[in-house]
Amino acid sequence: AEDPKRRVLKDVFGFDDFRPGQADVIDALLGGRHVLAVMPTGAGKSLCYQVPALVMGGLALVVSPLVALMQDQVAALRLAGVGADTINSSLDREANVAAWRRVASGQTRLLYLAPERLMTERMLEALSRLEVSLVAIDEAHCISQWGPAFRPEYEDLSRLRHIFPNVPIIAVTATADESTRSDIEARLFAERVETLVLGFDRPNIKLAIESKQDSKRQLLRFIERHPGKSGIVYCLSRKKTEEMAAFLEKNGVTALAYHAGMSKEAREANQNAFMTLSGVVMVATIAFGMGIDKPDVAYVFHTDMPGSLEAYYQEIGRAGRDGRKAEAHMLYGLGDIRMRRLFIDDEDAAVEHKKRAHRRLDTLIGYCETAQCRRQVLLGYFGEDASPCGNCDNCLDQVPRADGGAETRIILAA
Ligand code: ADP
Ligand code: MG
Ligand code: ZN
User: Which of 123-127, 192-196, 200-204, 246-250 has the lowest mean pLDDT?
Assistant: First the structure.
């Protein structure tokens, strides 16, 4: 069965992949939890509530501080064929009445409101008779008195959790600063809230790519530089995970395999061992990782090139969640490109889809081949600007030269 959130992403919005963080946020909401999602501008925060709204059905309320933002989003949703409405002060009475009729008759999936509109007794009374499935608060930092964009109208939103006690609430903002974050949490959520801070940059993860020669030896050498640490090793095939794990075991490394071809019991046993013991290396296919939140994973090692830059980002993101130094190391060679191209061509899919998949692969190859700062390329792909990071192989390989090359650079830059 296809994942309903993916189907909505594709059928309604026309996107093939979630951006980093989106799937985690959506899963938490679909699981009935409250979420505070802190993601950079351009990360795609709107989809984090639009997709679950459509998966859940019923009516989603979206609070947004600016009429222009609301109108933009409503127009875009309608273009995509989604029943969306806004009731706001810039519309005349007739337009607002017509919008309310659509809401009351159940045609509207997402209703955009300014906070002061939503929090009137009349509106809340009327909404209480409808099936409200989700409440989303965009630009949620407006609720924080410490923030630069404080809106007194936002304060009243703290009543929402009592008014809609069984409805998941999502607050999204690009303001990641710690005090604003806890302020938002305190005001909007009494109970447990899942706070996901998803700036795309994970500066503690060192990024490196090594040309593939003898992957077994290269992997072993890498692991020997991280004795006693927990790590994840991704391989393309099930067979290879088992061979690699056996090879590591033979060389004194505690390694376990994980792939979808193993029995449920064996998979669970290995996953438990990885989660509870320290110093276990999990050699896995991409079947391993969903919902894995082990804070002290010191590295993610790709013995084969992943499927896309999105997949790569998601997979390496399992390293260093505790904020300590961690590494993402990939082996990459021409064979990987050939293999990935074959995969795409062999897929039973439309030509358009294949073209897109090849283009996505080109992006990943570009990342592998770049001589620029890898983090710049990676973050740039997700719309985030960054300066050279000093924590990737390309940055670190730029050793100052004895002939004064480094000095020249500094002078030119000044
Ligand atoms: P934010 O509110 O986080 O600044 P938006 O929700 O406005 O970002 O989204 C920014 C842009 O990214 C929009 O054009 C949106 O269509 C696009 N976008 C969002 N999610 C995806 C995705 N999964 N794949 C491709 N594009 C996406
Ligand atoms: Mg936004
Ligand atoms: Zn760098």
Answer: 192-196
Q: Ligand 1: does its nearest atom lie under 6 Å from the Cβ of 40? A: no
d(CA 137, CA 20): 20
Question: Which pLDDT score, from 0 to 100, does residue 407 have?
Answer: 37
Does any ligand 1 atom lie closer than 6 A to the CB of residue 226? no
Q: What is the CA radius of gyration of the chain?
A: 24
Q: Does the Cβ of 15 fall within 6 Å of ligand 1?
A: yes
pLDDT in tens, 159-181: 999 999 999 999 998 876 677 78
Q: Which residue has the tokens 């050939």?
A: 338
79 lines ligand 1 (CB under 6 A): no
**108-148 pLDDT, tens digit each:** 999 999 999 999 999 999 999 999 999 999 999 899 876 66
Reported ipTM: the value is 0.97
CA 44 to ligand 2 centroid distance, Å: 7
Both tokens of 319, joined, read 């390293």
Residues with CB under 5 A from ligand 2 (ion): 45
Here the tokens at position 196 are 């996901």
- What H or E segment, with its residue span, contains residue 277? none
Q: Is the CB of 77 within 6 Å of ligand 1? A: no
Which residue(s) pair with 326 in the sheet?
205
Q: Which atom of ligand 1 is nearest to the CA of 174?
A: 3
Q: Give the Cα separation of 368 and 260 in Å (integer).
A: 28
Q: What is the DSSP letter of 251?
A: T
pLDDT level of residue 348 (50, 70, 90 thresholds): confident
DSSP 304: S
Q: Percentage of residues in the chain with pLDDT exceeding 90? A: 69
The DSSP 8-state label assigned to residue 321 in this structure reads T
Total residue length of the chain: 414
Say if residue 385 is exposed, middle or buried (CB neighbours under 10 Å; 0-12, 13-18, 19+).
exposed
- Name the residue with the closest Cα to ligand 1, atom 5: 44
Q: How far is the CA of 378 from the centre of ligand 3 (A)?
A: 10
For a ligand 1 pocket test, name from 8, 24, 39, 47 the mutation site with the most ligand atoms within 8 angstroms of its C-beta.
Answer: 47
The pLDDT of residue 240 is 97
The DSSP H or E segment spanning 217 is helix 215-224
Regarding the beta carbon of 26 and ligand 1, being less than 6 Å apart is answered: no
Separation of CA 184 from chain center: 21
Q: What is the pLDDT of residues 279-308, one digit of tens each?
A: 999 999 999 986 677 889 999 999 999 998
